[in-house]
Amino acid sequence: MLEERHHVLAGAIEGGGTKFVCAVGSGPHDLSRTEFPTGDNPIRVLAQVTNWLSEQQRERGDLQAIGIGSFGPLDLHSNSPAYGYITSTPKPGWRNTDVMGAVRRAFPNIPIGFDTDVNAAALGEYFWGNATGLSDFVYVTIGTGIGAGGVAGRQLIHGLVHPEMGHMLIPRVSGDTFAGACQYHGACWEGLCSGPALLRRSGMPAETIPPGHEAWVLETQYIAYAVANITCMLSPQRVIIGGGVRKAGRLGQDQFFRLIGEKTQAALNGYIASPALREEIENYIVPPHLGDNAGICGALALAQIALNDL
Ligand code: ADP
Ligand code: ZN
Question: pTM for the whole thing?
Fold first, then answer.
């Protein structure tokens, strides 16, 4: 069960495809942070990260635990030889990187939590954001890729590897011939709706696509199909959508969520008998309360949980 422990000084690491964010603190309102470019040399960036955490420790006092939320795929099985590794990523230089080991060597005596970036972000919202008090919810990020983490029955979902909801296959809108941008599946959800997919489809970055452009019509339709699938599959009490694309540039975040809500209702066609979907869709599909800080706050939450699990 996920439990929160307040006022513990901990370290947090959010490993992203573009940057590593590090922070030290006890919660969203007490967090010193910095960031380093991810690059293609894991040894260098992990040294920068652990050196910064050590400096912070000298200034602020002993860290009680460290949480790491990372891009994947990851090995999350604590009895596996590759536990704590980034495994089969196509990202240059990062395949089979022992992220947790590098942190453990620098901080051998404190508990270290390790999970996906999106499971971490889900936890951040569970501790301090739009998922407090919920037992079942999903956190989706739509940015350079699409990923989702989730909590079911107050437990983070792991399973065989970890969920890869961003690669679910979704039905095509008739007449849409865009090949999709996923290097594994072409037109999976990520292939249709990530930021780079929007760029390929429209010829412009998501930030600058005009509100009336067809790319937004398709983007919100495919996201609605995916949210409908997630809803049918996991029965979450809420779906939080974060990531850069959800700011929806010139269309605007409010309109983006309104369109997704309406289209999700249309896709489900009244089948799921809950007022949350029928009457309060604007509270069902929501942006993260912690905004772009959901991931790093979630890494801090992972640290707190690692301490509780001792
Ligand atoms: P990352 O996925 O690399 O961690 P982001 O979540 O910021 O980072 O995702 C980057 C993607 O989000 C880019 O494709 C970019 O075009 C898109 N993006 C960033 N800001 C906005 C915005 N305000 N409106 C629409 N799209 C955005
Ligand atoms: Zn895919």
Answer: 0.95
